[in-house]
Design goal:
By secondary structure, the protein is α/β, with parallel strands linked by helices. It has two domains: 196 residues, 3-Layer(aba) Sandwich (Rossmann fold), CATH 3.40.50.170; 92 residues, Formyl transferase, C-terminal domain (Methionyl-tRNA Fmet Formyltransferase, Chain A, domain 2). It contains eight helices and 16 strands. The strands form four sheets. It has a seven-stranded mixed beta sheet with strand order 5-2-1-6-7-9-10. Helix 1 packs parallel to helix 6 and helix 5 packs antiparallel against helix 7.
Length: 303
């Protein structure tokens, strides 16, 4: 089948790679326009655009797809596929051809923009991928295929995203094979079981020591790409990895570092966490122990 692919970030690229290596043909890619990035605010293309250019796939970077319908009509495609695209698709696009989406959750659970993060934050033991029909309501379309994936205790956002993208790409190809043979079947989502997830803000990344150790550890894993942080006497410190050490250090006061230790231990609600990795003054991530070697925490407040 001839595919028009719509996607933008890293998750989309892995799906696109699976499509490109299948018998189906990706005739063009639609992605978000280049955005300012980094300290110099230099315009940077999306990951999907980079991959498409490197592999000779025609690229359209539309700010709003609905404003470019006449251009899209000129593309020869049988079906459109979306994966973490970042735009709401309206009826003037959806009426052109069948449109299916790769969504990294077990719909109707976690509709919205942050299903991977939400699954980790909630302490779920499993998640999965749903291949669904795109409709105007967000992630509410009929589901063609759904498969589960276990969440390992050590999984963070990046590792789980990679697993789900690989699974989703394989599932997508199977669904497209069904479409090609006119054998596709779908089931209707149960609206009364639908849950929704929100976008992540910088404020969400603050590690409040009034949370439990399990909650803090999960938050650090879930929001790894964004960069979780604490404040030490008002100065922000980025945290890359935390570990629940409540069984060893249940006596540490909330928001206080453990004094006289070579390990970076902080008291939290009902226990304690250990900072395994954090951002050093050099701009590189270092171990919690190395951080303590260059910073005396005794008498300082952590919040």
């Amino acid at each position: 089948m001839k595919i028009l692919f719509l996607g933008s970030p890293r998750f989309s690229v892995e799906i696109l790679k699976k499509l490109a290596s299948s018998k189906h043909q990706v005739v063009a890619v639609v992605t978000q326009p280049d955005r300012p990035s980094g300290r110099g605010h230099k315009l940077c293309p999306t990951e999907v655009k980079k991959y498409a250019i490197e592999n000779g796939i025609k690229v359209f970077d539309f700010e709003k797809v609905c404003d470019h319908i006449e251009e899209i009509k000129k593309i020869d495609f049988d079906i459109s596929v979306t994966a973490s695209f970042g735009q709401i698709l309206r009826e003037n696009f959806l009426s052109l051809s069948p449109c299916i989406n790769v969504h990294p959750s077990l719909l109707p659970k976690y509709r919205g923009a942050t299903p991977i993060q939400s699954a980790i934050l909630s302490g779920d033991k499993k998640t999965g991928v749903s291949i669904m029909k795109v409709v105007r309501e967000v992630d509410a379309g009929d589901v063609y295929l759904q498969e589960e994936l276990a969440i390992d205790d050590e999984d963070d956002y990046l590792s789980l995203e990679a697993k789900l993208a690989s699974l989703g790409g394989d599932m997508l190809v199977r669904v497209l094979d069904k479409f090609e043979k006119c054998e596709e079947k779908a089931w209707v989502q149960k609206e009364n079981e639908a849950t929704f997830c929100k976008k992540i803000t910088k404020e969400d990344c603050f590690l409040d020591m009034n949370l439990t150790a399990k909650e803090l550890e999960s938050k650090c894993r879930a929001l790894k790409e964004y960069g979780t942080y604490i404040f030490i006497d008002g100065e922000r410190l980025k945290i890359a990895k935390l570990k629940d050490v409540s069984e060893e250090f249940s006596f540490v006061q909330i928001g206080k570092p453990l004094s006289g230790s070579k390990r970076f231990i902080i008291g939290c609600k009902g226990g304690a966490v250990e900072v395994i990795s954090c951002l050093g003054k050099s701009g590189k991530y270092i171990s919690g122990r190395d951080f303590l070697n260059g910073c005396k925490l005794e008498g300082k407040k952590i919040n």
